[in-house]
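Input (structure):
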């Protein structure tokens, strides 16, 4: 597995960008995730060959709203690439204390088009596994 991106939850996109030494010009794509009720802002850092996803809750019941209220800006999840979400799910959920937080499908052009994701809680860490559909 390879690190795909870091997911940061933010209440103020411009403040988060400034903290990272970036600007809105660095955002390659922004989409609204209707399932989770978040704006997703994607930034590629070519010098690290890494993506950053700024997750901005847009409703009180957004999937990240409570996290945002608590932290304003914070590391929410670490995303890894995979070709087999089912095997990953079995492997991680067979361990005591780990559990699935959610499964989503969304189109992210910056990530290659349609992706499927699996979020798993591992103790205090949220892992997202990303599979690009071909």
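Output (sequence):
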């Amino acid at each position: 597995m390879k690190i795909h991106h870091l997911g940061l939850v933010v209440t103020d996109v411009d403040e988060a960008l400034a903290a990272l030494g970036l600007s809105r010009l660095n955002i390659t794509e922004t989409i609204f995730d209707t399932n989770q009720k978040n704006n997703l802002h994607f930034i590629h850092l070519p010098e690290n060959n890494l993506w950053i996803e700024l997750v901005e809750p847009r409703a009180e019941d957004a999937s990240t709203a409570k996290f945002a209220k608590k932290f304003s800006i914070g590391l929410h999840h670490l995303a890894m690439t995979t070709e087999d979400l089912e095997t990953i799910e079995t492997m991680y959920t067979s361990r005591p204390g780990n559990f699935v937080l959610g499964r989503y499908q969304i189109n992210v052009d910056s990530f290659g088009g349609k992706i499927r994701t699996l979020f798993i809680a591992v103790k205090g860490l949220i892992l997202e596994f990303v599979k690009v559909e071909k």
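Notes: The radius of gyration is 14 Å. The helical segments are 13-19, 65-71, 85-93.
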